[in-house]
Amino acid sequence: MRKTILCTIAFTACSLLATAAVAEPLATVGDRKIERADVEKVVAGQLVAIENNRYKALREGLDAMVAETLMELEAKERGVTVQELANAEIMAKASEPTDDEVKALYEQHKDSFKGASIDDMRPRLVDYLKQGKLAAQQETLLTALRAKYPTTIALRPPTVKVEVGSRVKGPATAPVTIVEFSDYECPFCKRAEPSIKQVLDTYGDKIRLSYRDYPLDFHANARPASLAAHCANAQGKFWEYHEKVMASEDLSKAALEKIADDSKLDRAKFDECFAKDEFKAAIDADMAAGVAAGVNGTPAFFINGRMLDGAQPFEAFKEIIDEELAWQSKK
To answer: How confident is residue 13, by pLDDT bands cut at 50, 70 and 90?
Structure first.
């Protein structure tokens, strides 16, 4: 069974390439041919989502099998059953939730409890905290076992080739490139900014960051803000302007102009650029690149081509970046 799963994993990486190599058109209409490559451009986002979901399913199954094998090896060495090992190293070592922890969790989520008191919610709060402590203790054990029984994961996630665009921070030689598709009016994009800053502060020259526009249609001020940022970029002050726009709740034309003044831009050049919509084609090109890469919401990040959706915490970026750096070191 495990051999079959590994064969399936190995096949996954080349299956799309083999399919794409088929030369025949997928359809003919009169004297016109519809080629596979043309269809794949239309449904590129859906294909990316399918491959990402496939990888997630395979990785979850693989992680479960690795954990099971580690537990079996350790149990055998100790001369106990897997359940006895789990009881001793996970169940017995996971501390009981304290009253302070229960109160803190209640306060954090009380707005969603519809007036229920802490006593009403206590059983659910305690159970939630217990499960978290058990999961943490299990991961502590598995981390130790992975060190004891050298474990390597050969399964690689699907990647998407995404051009970095023109607005880049960090050295071209950086081992990790992050391409961000974002919307200045999107609250989740603003929420992701501290994570990105922490990534840059933590990894320094190991990261190259590229910002690309993905203004959503239902955000009326998003495209004008993207245009204004491009106009700032034309004067060599994109990142300074970008940070101020991301930090602003007001994206009206007057506010964008004030940010231009605060950023010491040449207002005559900025105003002319904005009035002429000089970077419409550039914004449209970013949007098209995002759609082709499978972006259907903001923010969306591609870390060495690996997609990470939404306003993720620093830890989510760190996990992928550390994996990528480890892979780079093995080349």
So the answer is: very low
Could you tell me the maximum CA-CA distance found in the chain, to the nearest angstrom? 79
Which residues share a beta bridge with 293?
A: none
Kindly indicate the confidence band of residue 43, based on its pLDDT and cuts at 50, 70 and 90. Answer: confident
| Residue 51 neighbours by CB under 8 Å, 6+ apart | 16, 158
SS3 143: helix
Taking each helix axis from N to C terminus, what angle separates 280-293 and 44-78, rounded to the nearest 10 degrees? 50
Separation of first and last alpha carbons in the chain: 30
Give me 246's structure tokens: 């991301």
Tokens 């050298």 correspond to: 150
**pTM (2 d.p.):** 0.74
Each residue of 265-317: pLDDT tens digit? Answer: 999 999 999 999 999 999 999 999 999 888 989 999 999 999 999 999 999 99
Q: For the purposes of burial, counting CB atoms within 10 Å of the CB of 249, is it exposed (0-12), middle (13-18) or buried (19 or more)? A: exposed
Q: How many helices (H) and strands (E) does the chain have?
A: 13, 7
For the chain, list the domains and their CATH numbers: 2-69 (no CATH), 168-330 (3.40.30.10)
Structure tokens at 217: 């249609």
Q: pLDDT tens for residues 219-250? A: 999 999 999 999 999 999 999 999 999 999 99
CA–CA distance, 130 with 194 (Å, rounded to integer): 30
